[in-house]
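Worked example

This section walks through a single chain of length 146. The input is the sequence exactly as stored; nothing has been trimmed or padded.
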Amino acid sequence: MGIFSFLKDVGEKIFGGGEAKADELKKHLDAQGLDTKDLQVQVEGDQVVLKGSVKDQATLEKAVLAVGNNAGVAAVKTDDIQVEAPAEESVFYEVKKGDTLWKIAETVYGKGKGGKYTVIFEANTPMLKDPDKIYPGQKLRIPPLK
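Given that input, the structure is written out below as tokens.
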């Protein structure tokens, strides 16, 4: 997949707003219930490096978002991850001020498709707990419509 950029000063403050720590990121990632036990987390400055294997593309993308959407993380590198069941990659979208999941669905899927916001919400669970709680700078997975 490569390197994914994030806004370093935006996101959950699981480190108390300080520097990213590999052990805390790993705990946070595992708490999402994504079956990421075979992923290792390393921190190099403000970049997180994920290594290991995951069962599918969705799990990889959710892992990237789970660690990247934290204050103190500017990038997530995934070059050393093996995906057991590769699939089409999702598009990543950066939330802008005034966005809602409905508006995002209309933007990426097309006019009249706002009701597909549930697809976006489901693609970002368990990181998103409520479809009304997104914030500017947050990155979201936008899967292709089937």
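What to look for: The longest strand covers residues 75-85.
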